[in-house]
Amino acid sequence: MPKLALIQMHVVGGAKRENLRHARDLILQAASAGAQIVVLPEAMTLGWTHPLARTEADSLPDGASIVALREAAMEAGVHVCSGFIERAGEKIFNSAVLIAPGGSILLHHRKLNELELAHDLYALGDRLQVVETPFGRIGLMICADGFARGQVIARALGYMGAEIILSPSAWAVPSDHDNVKEPYGQLWMDNYSPVARDFGLWIVGVSNVGWLNAGPWSGRKCIGCSLVVGPSGEKVMQGPYGVDAEAVLTIEFATLPRLAQGDGWAHLWQR
Predict the structure, then answer these.
(1) Domain spanning 3-270: CATH superfamily
(2) Which whole-number Å values give the CA distances from 96 to 47, 245, 254, in the listed order?
(3) Which helix (H) or strand (E) holds 28?
(4) Where are the domains of the chain?
(5) Which of 160, 251, 242 is nearest to 201 (CA)?
(6) Where are any strands of DSSP class E within 111-198?
(7) 203 phi and psi angles, rounded to 5 deg
(8) Most exposed among 48, 148, 214, 219, judged by the fewest C-beta atoms under 10 Å?
(9) How far is residue 48's CA from residue 150's CA, in Å, rounded to a whole number?
């Protein structure tokens, strides 16, 4: 049965080589658990808004980050979806790709609804795409794309026939956030659920964990809580909360993506 892995990875700001090595290890871990699609966080290579983006961003398709992700996909024999920081000429983008097990790039997305405080670092994308896979038609968005006004980006992917939307993310909260008093995740349920329900599709949001150590949100913490919402708008799975809550979450389906509620099982491996 098809299985998808959400890699709620610890991302170290600015440590591209370390992050890529760690991502490879976790991709192989997920593949050994039977995953066929592996999803990593937003800006996995450098961390969100890290200023080293200006010198360490990578080109597509032959920059160091993309080559490493393509090699990992081929080594593991899985589809890999990951965020990365992209350079295209003089512009830097907050981007994501979906890579086939053979190493080809199936989807390339540049974030459209970037937070205003990041506009001086990242340029904005100008298009959306979907692709047919053995698991159904997949669309790609990144983090705040999911709460664009009226959920317009996710809904556009739904109109384009997406059956699964993958969303690499970096969900950050203030350093003193108390998850008991204010449980994290309602923002994403409020935006994922209506789209999933209206279009009968799956939305998978995967966030990193770890401290933001540079940029406009330096001192905030990324806390995981990666999320799967099913086609009835229900929460199927949510990852653990915490700055140290690295985990590989897998969800297995009897039928992917048009799974009736109750026909799937979620499993958790936590470091």
Answers:
(1) Carbon-nitrogen hydrolase (3.60.110.10)
(2) 13, 23, 28
(3) helix 16-32
(4) 3-270
(5) 160
(6) 130-133, 136-140, 164-169, 172-173
(7) -125, 130
(8) 219
(9) 24
